[in-house]
Amino acid sequence: MNRIETRMKTLEERNEKAFITYITAGLPNYEKTKEIIKTSMEAGCDVIELGIPFSDPVADGPVIQDASFRAINNGATLAKTFEMMKEIRAEGVEQAILFMMYYNHVYHLGVENFVKACIESGVDGLIIPDLPFEEQDELKNELSKYDNAPILIQLVAPVSKQRIPMILENARGFVYCVSQMGVTGNGANFHKEIREYLENVKAVSKIPVMMGFGIRTYEDVESLVDTIDGVIVGSHFIKLLDESAYDCKVSADYIREFKSKLND
């Protein structure tokens, strides 16, 4: 098991829900990104979803699009993010960190080179929204060559019940349930059949089920907590960081409060 799977197993043994946050790599700079990662983990964040800035995202709403734009203008790149990962691992951070990114980065670097760079820098998982399940074989085959390669996290949207078992058959880590149609950051405008959808995924999944997209507060998911194993907060966390001028105490307090309510 890698760090993500180990953390999920520990939470299951403790009967706890997972809390995952999204951070844009290199915003406002890489030193601050490292500080946010460290303080978020100390505050109780179970997995960090590190967003790799990209010019043409398909799943991100205005908040994360703007964050990526600013990070790129500040000089953020995939290569620099790999270097930051090496630094943070050398500084003793052992918690689970995954990349949320788009396939153009992988394609440009080359699948083999990309996977090796992930291993060398200590990346634990990958979320690639624009890589359909049917087109994942090339990357999966390369990842399967190494015991310490990152795991590919599967996204499941509100689709037909028949498609869910196929996507989750060999899924690892956790399944990312997209809770609304469209892009991130639309508030708690969840799919009208959100409970049935989550229950369908939960019924066939052998791994923890996470809910993400549009979540801001615990109250947004309070009525659904019994059907999920954890939540992912992205756009709201980026907005919180921006509005607090990247005050790590503010973000840490938010994590502690949300995680406490999630497991009350």
UniProtKB/TrEMBL annotation:
It catalyses: (1S,2R)-1-C-(indol-3-yl)glycerol 3-phosphate + L-serine = D-glyceraldehyde 3-phosphate + L-tryptophan + H2O. The active site is at residues 49, 60. GO terms for molecular function: tryptophan synthase activity. It is an enzyme of class 4 (lyase). The keyword Transcription regulation does not apply. Pfam families: Trp_syntA. Pathway: Amino-acid biosynthesis; L-tryptophan biosynthesis; L-tryptophan from chorismate: step 5/5. Tetramer of two alpha and two beta chains. The alpha subunit is responsible for the aldol cleavage of indoleglycerol phosphate to indole and glyceraldehyde 3-phosphate. This is Tryptophan synthase alpha chain.
